Amino acid sequence: MNRSDSGHSLSLDLADLGHDDLAGAAAVGDTEAFAVLVRRMTPGLLRYMRRMVSDTQTAEDLTQETLLDAWKGLPDFEFRSTFRTWVFTIAHRKSVDYHRRRRDVPIVDGRFAEIEAAGPLPPEQVERQLLIDALRAELDNLPSTSRAAWWLKEVEGLTLEETSRVLRISTGSVRGHLQRSRKFLHTRLAPWDPGRRTPTTPNVDGREGGGIDA
Fold first, then answer.
1. Whose CA, among 93, 173, 187, 209, lies 20 to 30 Å from 25?
2. pLDDT attached to residue 199
3. Three-state DSSP string of the chain
């Protein structure tokens, strides 16, 4: 097998590994493994930062800082949580520190394409867009921790326990934030969903969901 074949095989092997296996390899200096992790983690981290930080460039910078800190910290990472949870914990700390320094209040910045409906039927287009626009605005009215808990669970798919680790609060507190967020959003979004008994929010894949499950 020549060198190019070997490299191709290695690339395929790395692509088949899970986050934690890649992190284990990266922890002992495998830069190729960490490069795969960066490609996998960057989209979700950037989505999260854009929800928590109003400035686009700052969100991108904090995402890069998060990944750099993860690389530096990997040798000491003890895998007491999943790698993904640990990286979101670093990201959340970055956003909190940023706002503490700036004494700024996060705002939603209009880049909400990640929860746009995927190809709705034409008659549904306008109504769904109104609902998404309303959700964009109302998320901004949630307290920062509630918005973070909602986003991590509903968009990024973290569990209650993982969200608890990221935000450094108890699972009971996470559940409370989610329940209050669900009640708030359902109440505020009711005018945009008049045909249903229980208002719904759009999922990231374009299907309608029942809101936030505590």
1. 93
2. 40
3. CCHHHHHHHHHHHHHHCCHHHHHHHHHCCCHHHHHHHHHHHHHHHHHHHHHHCCCHHHHHHHHHHHHHHHHHHHHHCCCCCCHHHHHHHHHHHHHHHHHHHHCCCCCCCCCCHHHCCCCCCHHHHHHHHHHHHHHHHHHHCCCHHHHHHHHHHHHCCCCHHHHHHHHCCCHHHHHHHHHHHHHHHHHHHHHHCCCCCCCCEECCCCCEECCCCC
User: 121-194 has which CATH code?
Assistant: 1.10.10.10
Q: What is the pLDDT of residue 65?
A: 96
Q: Give me the CATH topology for the region 16-105.
A: Rna Polymerase Sigma Factor; Chain: A (1.10.1740)
Question: What pLDDT does residue 35 have?
Answer: 94
Start-end ranges of CATH 1.10.1740.10 in the chain? 16-105
Residue 161, pLDDT > 90, answer yes
Q: What is the pLDDT of residue 126?
A: 57
Report the share of the chain in percent with pLDDT over 70: 68
206 contacts 124 by C-beta, under 8 angstroms: no
